[in-house]
C-alpha cells in the first residue's frame, strides 16, 4: 500500500518538553510539508522540503524544527519554545501540483 | 481580509439535496484550485484539482471556477450522510507549489 503514515496518532506532552512527530511516505515524492490545524482555522504551513537535505520555513516555523535526511522521512520536532503547541499536525507530500495528506497527529500539552 | 474566504457553516441539508460550497479569494495570481474533504480527526483527502476557469465533474462532484469573480464552488449532487465532513478549498499560483487554504465549511447531511 502506498501512502503517508504519521505516528503516533495521539501524543501528550508536558510543558517544557520537546517532542518529535513522525512522517513517512512510500510514494517516492520529493516534496514534503508540515501543517498545523487549529479549530476554525485553515491549515498553516510550518516547514516544507522540496528535496532531501533541504528545507524552508513556512509561515509559523518559530518553536519547531525539522530534518530531511531521507526522501521517505520528514520528522517534526515541537520544542519547548513553541508557546501554544496543542493542535492537530498534518504531514503532506506532493507530486506535480497535487498535495496528499497523512492521517494527522493530535498533540496535547498537559 | 484573508486571501481566501470560506464560510465555516455548519451547513445542514437533507439527504438527496444538492449542496453548494463556495470560496472567494483576492489574489488574482491564483490559477490552480483544489477541494479537500476532511472527516473528523482525519487528514484531508483531495477531491478535485482544477486549473483556471471552467467546470470539472467527477461522479457526484462538480468543481466550478470563475476567475473573473474570484469565486470557486463545489457542488455535490444527491448528497449522502457519508458526505458529512469539513470541506476545505485551497488555491495556488503557477509560480508556487504552496497552496493557501480556506478555513473549511462543515457540512451535515441528515437522513
Describe the structure.
The complex is a heterodimer of chains A (110) and B (111). Helix content of chain A is 0%, strand content 53%. Chain A has no helices and eleven strands. Chain A has strands at residues 4-7, 10-13, 19-25, 31-37, 44-51, 54-57, 64-66, 76-78, 87-95, 98-101, 105-109. In chain A, the strands form two sheets. In chain A, strands 2, 4, 5, 6, 9, 10 and 11 form a seven-stranded mixed beta sheet that branches. Chain A has a four-stranded antiparallel beta sheet with strand order 1-3-8-7, with no helix packed on it. Chain B is built from no helices and eleven strands. In chain B, the strands form two sheets. In chain B, strands 2, 4, 5, 9, 10 and 11 form a six-stranded mixed beta sheet that branches. A five-stranded antiparallel beta sheet of chain B has the order 1-3-8-7-6, with no helix packed on it. Chain B is globular and about 45 Å long. The A-B interface holds A 4, 6, 31, 33, 40-43, 45, 48, 50, 58, 88, 90, 94, 97-104, 106 and B 4, 6, 8, 32, 34, 36, 41-46, 49, 88, 90, 92, 97-104.
Question: Which two chains have the most extensive interface, and how many residues on each?
Answer: A-B, 24 and 24 residues
Order of helices and strands of chain B: EEEEEEEEEEE
Based on CA atoms alone, the radius of gyration of chain A comes out at 13 Å
The residue ranges of chain A in which pLDDT falls below 50 over 5 or more consecutive positions are none
Rg of chain B, Å, rounded: 13 Å
> Oligomer, anyone?
heterodimer
Portion in beta strands of chain B: over 45%
Overall average pLDDT of chain B: 95
Helix fraction bin of chain A: under 10%
- Rough outline of chain A: globular
User: Can you give the helix content of chain B as a percent range?
Assistant: under 10%
Output the number of helix runs of chain B. Answer: 0
Biggest sheet of chain B: strands, sense, closure?
6 strands, mixed
Let me know the average pLDDT of chain A.
94
Supply the helix-strand structural class of chain A: mainly beta
Q: What distance separates the N and C termini of chain A?
A: 35 Å
Helix and strand sequence of chain A: EEEEEEEEEEE
How many E strands of chain A?
11
Q: How would you characterize the largest beta sheet of chain A?
A: 7 strands, mixed
Amino acid at each position: 500500500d502506498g501512502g503517508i503514515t504519521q505516528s503516533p496518532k495521539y501524543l501528550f506532552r508536558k510543558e517544557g518538553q520537546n517532542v518529535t512527530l513522525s512522517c513517512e511516505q512510500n510514494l517516492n515524492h520529493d516534496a514534503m510539508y508540515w501543517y498545523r490545524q487549529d479549530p476554525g482555522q485553515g491549515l498553516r504551513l510550518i516547514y516544507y522540503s522540496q528535496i532531501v537535505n533541504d528545507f524552508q520555513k513556512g509561515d509559523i516555523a518559530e518553536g519547531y524544527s525539522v530534518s530531511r535526511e531521507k526522501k521517505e522521512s520528514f520528522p517534526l520536532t515541537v520544542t519547548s519554545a513553541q508557546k501554544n503547541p496543542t493542535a492537530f499536525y498534518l504531514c503532506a507530500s506532493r507530486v506535480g501540483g497535487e498535495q496528499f495528506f497523512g492521517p494527522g497527529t493530535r498533540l496535547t500539552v498537559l | 481580509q484573508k486571501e481566501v474566504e470560506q464560510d465555516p457553516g455548519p451547513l445542514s441539508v437533507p439527504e438527496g439535496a444538492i449542496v453548494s460550497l463556495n470560496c472567494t479569494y483576492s489574489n488574482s495570481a491564483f490559477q490552480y484550485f483544489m477541494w479537500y474533504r476532511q472527516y473528523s480527526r482525519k487528514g484531508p483527502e483531495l477531491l478535485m484539482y482544477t486549473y483556471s476557469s471552467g467546470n470539472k465533474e467527477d461522479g457526484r462532484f462538480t468543481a466550478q471556477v470563475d476567475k473573473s469573480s474570484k469565486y470557486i464552488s463545489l457542488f455535490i449532487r444527491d448528497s449522502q450522510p457519508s458526505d458529512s465532513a469539513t470541506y476545505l478549498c485551497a488555491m495556488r499560483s503557477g509560480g508556487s507549489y504552496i497552496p493557501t487554504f480556506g478555513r473549511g465549511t462543515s457540512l451535515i447531511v441528515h437522513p
